[in-house]
Amino acid sequence: MLPASAPFVRSDPLRRSLPLAAALAFAAALSAPAQEPRLPDIGSSAGEVLPPARQAEYGAMLLSQLRHYDYVLEDPLLEDWLQGVGQRLAASSDQPRRDFTFFLLKEREINAFATLGGYIGMNAGLILAAEREDQVASVLAHEIAHVTQDHVLRAVERAQRERIPILLATIAAIAVAQGAASENSQDDAALAAAAIGQGLMVQRQIDYTRSNEAEADRIGIQNLARAGYDPHAAAEFFSTLQAAVRVNRGGERERVPDYLQTHPVTTLRISEARERAARLQGQSGFSVGTNASDNPLLPSGLRLPGSAALARGGSGQFGWARERLRVLSANTPAQAIREYEAMREKGPLDDARRYGLAVARLRAGQAGAAAEDLAALLARHPGDLWLTLALAEAEARAGRSEAADRRFETLLARMPDNRAAALTYAQVLAERGNAEAGRRAQTVLRPLATTGAAQDPLYQRTLARVSELAGDPVRAGEAWAEAEFLNGRPERALVQLETLKKRQDLDYYARARIEARIAAITPTVLELRRQGIRDEELRRR
């Protein structure tokens, strides 16, 4: 199902689409620079514009601001799936040690982009348009190539030559449009200003460098094959996107998807992608995705760890992921249910869509019906994580707490540091609202503290809630502050930490942690203030 014809695109286009389009247009402009002769060699002056640490800082700030305006889709199952696909591709690239962060946005328009620090975003609409994981992987491989080949840094160099303040242009594009849209009297002015700004940024997108796109295609398809995906998936998905444009011509939604503005698809490009894939498969001794020696930077004969996970083909999770994403990107669960009902009128739902319908029913408050559907699916797919978690959640909400707890505890005994399992169980426990459940949830979340969960706002919010229930206000306050920081509100985080620091019951270790976070967050707040970006809610108090 192509998002251009999707019946349930998220609503309120002025409040959501304008700021998002402005922000992503600028981010896309960074990965699709204008045509310039004699570009600097890779790693030369572009590397001097922003050192790696500064690149990562800007990328993290952009992600936090997208979270602040509720564009990022937070779901541990989907996030772990996307990270798995992305990291599999990154490990097969020419720079396997480079850091990447992959994240999802709720919008159903087709789009994906790479920006500073290896941050790569993908819209829900692009995944809904794909028919298999290999096609999604082909887009991620292309965006990874834009990063590894320093196309993003070259665009930053050009932007700085043109005196464009990168952080200000990216974040302010969101903040200004969002603020203007909040007052009805300014709607027309906001639309006009956005149209002018959008026109300038779209022009920057269209003036892409053909050589960069060709290079990203070539390297992306090569990495796609190295990672064990079908290298023909790139041309296949290009054809799907091209068809989407033809189908919608003449309709009220007629426009070229954002992704095709920054990555124009032509018959020649599709043909070249097919030829590259055929050459890769036809090379003597070339084995798709099973041998690390395909990577010229790794020793010959070395097998990558977890080679079973890198076996040819997808992860086996794409069907569940796409349908879960369909539900979470719909405006409401009721709308998602209607979408599945429309599909069922055309033919029986497959197991993945039956799972999606069950998730939609669960989120619509129909836990009993969802549990019945999920139990039947789990019998067909025993041990499946996605189905087990959904069934345990449905049982808990249907009043079958003992059965739900047994299912969660069995799952966690097998995989105690699984983020999706721990967070889902902790959220179910938090809904019980008592101290015993809060303490158990704290125990469930504890193994995640050493797995990078500190950078996950959903983890921090859940930890804060269960810590309050458990009677641990200091840990709760720290977690609430951290959630605010990760969600693009560093000033609020700082205020909360300063307030927490005044408590008389802090022990030495808690005070040291709080003071360390204040020192770490303060430079971010000062940088945002220097660029004129302030927390409007705090200013109104």
Topology:
Layout: H1 13-31, H2 45-49, H3 52-68, H4 76-91, E1 101-105, E2 112-115, E3 119-123, H5 124-129, H6 133-148, H7 151-161, H8 166-181, H9 187-206, H10 210-226, H11 233-248, H12 258-262, H13 267-282, H14 318-329, H15 333-346, H16 351-363, H17 367-380, H18 385-397, H19 401-414, H20 419-430, H21 435-445, H22 457-469, H23 473-486, H24 490-501, H25 508-530, H26 536-540
Parallel strand pairs: 1-3
Antiparallel strand pairs: 2-3
Helix pairs in contact: 1-8, 1-9, 3-8, 4-6, 6-10, 6-11, 10-13, 11-13, 14-16, 15-16, 16-17, 16-18, 17-18, 18-19, 18-20, 20-21, 20-22, 21-22, 22-23, 23-24, 24-25
Description:
With 541 residues, the protein is an all-alpha fold. It has three domains: 12-284, no CATH class; 330-410; 415-541. The chain is 65% helix and 3% strand. The chain is built from 26 helices and three strands. It has a three-stranded mixed beta sheet with strand order 1-3-2, sandwiched between helices. A hairpin with a 3-residue loop joins strand 2 and strand 3 (119-123). Helix 14 (318-329) packs parallel to helix 16, helix 18 (385-397) runs antiparallel to helix 19 and helix 20 runs antiparallel to helix 21. The longest helix is centred in the last third of the chain and has 23 residues, at 508-530. The protein is globular and about 70 Å long.
